[in-house]
Design brief:
Layout: H1 14-25, H2 32-56, H3 61-82, H4 99-110, H5 117-140, H6 147-180
Protein name: DUF305 domain-containing protein
Pfam families: DUF305
Domain DUF305: 18-85, 111-170
C-alpha cells in the first residue's frame, strides 16, 4: 500500500515560534544572569516576529494596533537588554535552570489553535508574556545576580504584566463581540 503524506496546516506562526524556541535554547552565556539576558533577547525577537506575522494576516484595526505596539516594545526591550550582555567563557550549566520555563511556554503556545488568527495571536502573546515572567522568576531565585540585571528583570516583569492585561482585555472584548455577532 502506498504511503500517504500527512498534510495539515501548521498555522502562520509555527515557524517563527519554532525558531524562537530554538534561539532561546541556544542562547548560552557566562552566568545565569547573562543566560537570562541572551534568552530574553531571543524571546523578544521572536515575539516581534510573531506580531509581524499577525500584521500580515490583515487583522482588525484594534489587533493591528496592538501587534504594532508589541513589535515596537519587543524590539525596544531587546535593544535595552543588549547593553547587559557579558563576555567570557560559556557556562552551560547555568542555562539549565531556564529549560523548564522555556519548554512550558513553547508547549502552551504551540497548543493554541483555532480559525481566528487574531484570537490565536492574542492567546499566543499572553503565553509569551507568561513565559518571560516565569523565566524572570527563575532568575530572581538565583544568588548573586548583578543589580543592573535585577533592575532589568523587574522592569520586564512590570511591562509583561501590563501588556498581558491589555491583551487579555482585547481577547475578552473580541469574544464578547463574537458572542453578540458583531464584526
Amino acid at each position: 500500500m502506498p504511503s500517504e503524506a500527512i498534510s495539515f496546516d501548521l498555522g502562520p506562526f509555527f515557524y517563527a515560534e519554532t525558531a524562537m524556541y530554538d534561539n532561546m535554547r541556544s542562547a548560552i552565556g557566562t552566568s545565569s544572569g547573562d543566560n537570562w539576558v541572551r534568552m530574553m533577547i531571543a524571546h523578544h525577537e521572536g515575539g516581534a516576529e510573531i506580531s509581524r506575522i499577525a500584521l500580515q494576516q490583515n487583522p482588525p484595526l484594534r489587533i493591528a494596533d496592538l501587534a504594532r505596539r508589541t513589535v515596537k516594545a519587543q524590539e525596544r526591550a531587546a535593544v535595552q537588554l543588549e547593553k547587559l550582555l557579558r563576555d567570557g567563557p560559556v557556562n552551560m550549566e547555568s542555562a539549565f535552570i531556564f529549560v523548564s520555563p522555556i519548554q512550558s511556554m513553547h508547549d502552551a503556545s504551540m497548543a493554541i489553535d483555532g480559525s481566528d488568527v487574531s484570537e490565536i495571536w492574542l492567546r499566543k502573546m499572553i503565553e509569551h508574556h507568561r513565559g518571560a515572567i516565569e523565566m524572570s522568576n527563575v532568575l530572581l531565585s538565583q544568588p548573586r545576580i548583578p543589580k543592573k540585571t535585577v533592575t532589568a528583570v523587574e522592569e520586564l516583569n512590570n511591562a509583561q504584566h501590563a501588556d498581558m492585561k491589555v491583551l487579555e482585555q482585547a481577547l475578552d472584548d473580541q469574544k464578547s463581540q463574537e458572542h453578540r455577532g458583531s464584526p
